[in-house]
Amino acid sequence: MNASTSSCRACGAEEPKFLFQTGSYRLVRCAGCGLVWVSNPPSSEELQGLYNEAYWEDPATEGYSGYARLEREKRMHFASLINILERFRPPDKSVLEIGCAYGYFLDEAKKRGWRVRGLEFSPYAAAFARDRLGLDVSVGGIEQITEAAESVGVVVMWDVIEHLPDPTAAVRTAWRILKPQGLLALSTGDVGSLSARIHGRCWSLMTPPWHLFYFTRRSLRLLMRRSGFSVIWMGGDGVVAADPASPRPRLPPWLSSLLLRPSVTRAFRFLGWGSVVFLCARKSSAA
Ligand SMILES: [Zn+2]
């Protein structure tokens, strides 16, 4: 294990413990904050090949079984996230989305008067956002971010931080380009959630080499604090214990369907629980 993968990116603790192996990937866990990560990540050349059209649209591969078909659902979900961002009064209505996929979030924000720009690692998805929605989207990783220091009101990363080879660098870059009091908002799987703990390596979000980092709420708070942010809100998707997409569900079907009833997930969401965590943090001090 080399130096870049041996200390925790969230809290800095050394000597993570071996958790389990899935396929050819070794997962380790930080004893300090619970962050889980792939200790033998793929090379950057291998990462390039992971996000082609099949990742977004082919049901036979890992990833999405048809992202374009989710458009209506995604737009409604993103509209509710824009409500949350506006409630926290960012310094202005400008947003950079890191990992903007097909651009549905940016398009919803634009309709509501935001100035929007996107960055997308997948050339296929970036072309979709540019050609079909006419959005300003660049292709590449965080090294392609060209925004000046203190120039953006909000940075968002929806279901993206778990894919990045260096999540800390992404959060630090967000800090640098955000205006004072700017907002960083993100969502990611919660490996400390009940459904992640029940399902272990069969958790539907346990998908190396696509997902390289698996955060707990504690590890997210520590990463934010160490990077110059203060967390102002955390929420959950309301999916508790059940895991509808697990290849090997661990709950009896009757219990799973009970826990996935809309009224039940709504109640858990109200409580802030779920297997996906949402976070909004404000730029506070020097990183
Ligand atoms: Zn840690």
Question: Can you offer a commentary on this structure?
Answer:
The chain is of the alpha/beta class and 287 residues long. The chain has one domain: 3-Layer(aba) Sandwich (Rossmann fold), CATH 3.40.50. The chain is built from 11 helices and 11 strands. The strands form 2 sheets. Strands 6-5-4-7-8-11-10 form a 7-stranded mixed beta sheet, sandwiched between helices. It has a 4-stranded antiparallel beta sheet with strand order 1-2-3-9, with no helix packed on it. Strand 7, helix 7 and strand 8 (178-189) form a beta-alpha-beta unit. Helix 4 crosses helix 5. The longest helix has 17 residues, at 71-87. It is globular, with a radius of gyration of 18 Å. 40% of the residues are buried. It binds zinc ion (ZN).
